[in-house]
# Entry
Amino acid sequence: MQQLKDELEAEGVMPKAEDEILNTVLGVRSGYSKGLGHGVLPQSSKRVSSIQLEEEVQRRRDEDEFQRKRAEEAEKRNEELKAEMVSQRKKIEEMDARQERFEAWML
# Structure
């Protein structure tokens, strides 16, 4: 089961849910389910909701990590822009001082 999961990940394919891999490895067993008759036994609702919750938690973790990275990049860009603004102000002040000296020299 782990080998199949590793092979899928190595191929870059989204790994199947554990139940799907289990069904692939062991096969599906038919049986009798009360109220449903003979056929494939459904997964328990607890198992399904547990899987759904795990997927939701993972999705939110991924989204949180993505947003954290975006915030870090924005903060870094903000610092770069602040430094550039300070540099531009210094250049403007230097140019103003040169212009004043030039005007004083011309008089």
Q: What stands out?
A: The mean pLDDT is 81. The chain is about 75% helix and 5% strand. Strands lie at 30-33, 37-40. The longest strand covers residues 30-33.
